[in-house]
Amino acid sequence: MSQYPSSFDRDDLLKCARGELFGPGNAQLPAPPMLMMDRITEISGDGGLHGKGHVVAEFDITPDLWFFDCHFPGNPIMPGCLGLDGLWQLTGFNLGWRGWLGRGYALGVGEVKLTGMVRPDRKMLTYKVDFTKAIQTRRLTMGVADGIVEADGEVIYIVKDMKVALSES
User: Fold this and answer.
1) Residue 3 lies in a domain
2) Biological process GO terms, please (predicted)?
3) FRET partner for 76 with CA separation of 20 to 30 A, picked from 10, 60, 65, 119?
4) Which CATH number goes with the domain that contains 117?
């Protein structure tokens, strides 16, 4: 389906952040420290729970990550919004991986449920994004997906109806 591979290492993700993977003016990941994954282990345009595409990625957790010092001093917890942003990042990445043009923008999310925390003693987050819709028309390019975040195998975030669009403006 895509001209790109089905997995990406950190160097590939940094190329995407610099605009070198999908080309200038197209989907980019944010640069560190806002890049919320270290590798993408699986990606498709027709897999996942609904057969409309999916992404699986991992983020290594270490006690020296930037957000632990400030959120909260003496009680370090990864902000839940960063896990949500990681899911949005992967949703937009999938649209670029499909070869669809434009810059990615998060449009919203239907439901977010946080059932656990990411503390410095965790080792790895696993993101799982499953598309429910992938739309490309003359006027609209958008992905709608559900996602989960696991910390060391335990589901800690459940997200429904994330929306990311690509825009050429």
Assistant:
1) no
2) fatty acid biosynthetic process
3) 10
4) 3.10.129.10
Rg (CA), the chain: 15
Task: Determine whether 50 is an active site residue.
Answer: no
Report how many domains make up the chain.
Answer: 1
Instruction: Note if the pTM is more than 0.90.
Output: yes
Mean pLDDT by 10 residues, the chain (169 residues): 89 97 94 98 97 98 97 97 98 97 96 98 98 94 98 98 93
Please tell me which residue in 10, 39, 50, 71 is annotated as part of the active site: 71
The residue whose two tokens read 């895509």 is: 2
Residue 153 and residue 126: Cα distance in Å, rounded?
A: 8
Tell me, yes or no, whether 4 lies in a domain. Answer: no
CB 91 within 8 A of CB 39: no
Domain annotation covers residue 144: yes
